[in-house]
Amino acid sequence: MILLDSTVIVGFLDADDALHAAAVAKLRQIVGRQPLLVSVISYAEVMTGVALGHHPRDRVDGFFDAFVNELVPVDRSVAARAATLRGARRSLRMPDALILATADLHEEIDTAICADGDWPKVRGLHCAVEILRARTSATG
């Protein structure tokens, strides 16, 4: 199973986002091949974009309905693991620590996909971290 970060979702939803082409290509590659999960933290981040007028609600709802198999909650164990991750790497923001802890503690999650270059620097995770990078016109 794959856990998607909000950066991937926003990249997919927003044609003007620097990650749009990469996010579309990645989702084409994985949708239907592996279940996709999203932390409730990422969901809240994307829904904040809706509240701020960055994304239409129906487009966001359509994304989650079509592609996401499960929203994964944050519980006490995830919060505790996030605090440990954040304590070990102070540059890691707490929302990101919560999302990483979610992926780390759910054995069925093999990979977390994001666009934050800091995530792979976090040590001791039980899942892989894949970085989605913006495509340039020269490469793609």
Question: What's a quick, concise take on this entry?
Answer:
The chain has six helices and five strands. The chain has 140 residues and is an alpha/beta fold.
The CATH topology label is Rossmann fold
Rg computed from alpha carbons, rounded to a whole number of angstroms: 14 Å
Taking pLDDT < 50 over at least 5 consecutive residues as the criterion, the unreliable ranges are none
Quote the beta fraction.
5-15%
Task: Write down the domain tally.
Answer: 1
CATH top level? Answer: Alpha Beta
| Total E-strand runs | 5
> Mind describing the biggest β-sheet?
5 strands, parallel
Shape: globular
Helix and strand string, N-terminal first?
EHHEHHEHHEE
**What is the topology, as strand order, of the major beta sheet?**
3-2-1-4-5
Alpha-beta content class: alpha/beta
- How many alpha or pi helices? 6
Terminal CA distance reads 27 Å
Q: Mean of residue pLDDT?
A: 93
Query: What is the percent of helical residues?
Result: 40-55%
What is the architecture at the second tier of CATH? 3-Layer(aba) Sandwich
Q: Let me know the CATH homologous superfamily.
A: 5'-nuclease
